[in-house]
Amino acid sequence: MPVAIPAAVRLRCTLYALIALAALVGTASQLGRYLPLGPIQGNVQFWQDTFANAASRFITVDIFFVFLVVWHWMLRESRRLGMGGIAGYFAASLLVAFSTALPLFMLHRELAQQRHNAGRDGHPETPLGAWAWLSLLAVAAGTIAYTWRSLQAT
Length: 154
What we know:
The chain is an all-alpha fold and 154 residues long. It has helices spanning 7-28, 39-49, 54-81, 86-118, 130-153.
């Protein structure tokens, strides 16, 4: 039996979808310089450009640490609510934009939470699996490595 979705949840889902779309448009508008270079060289050039000045290093270090904390929360929430497809959000965060992936995750979470609350049966939270911990450690390692390199650039 389908779960009835309250109006407030539908509104939040609509807002998350609009935020994701706006983030996608905003970030994609900055890719014109990188797309002609191809996926590998475009990424190499993009990451080199994040070291261009103190402001670019600041915002990159900042978003990496935000991503580290939020990614851990996303993993826990996806386990708690039995959400599938969490690897897609990780890939989208790295390959598209975190500002697009996070609102899409939040939309998915809202719907999963409705299903979870409708069928509460007292099951405890499932612990994070090995791949989840590995992805979290990879984000932490990348964050630390970038931060270290940005400190060397100052």
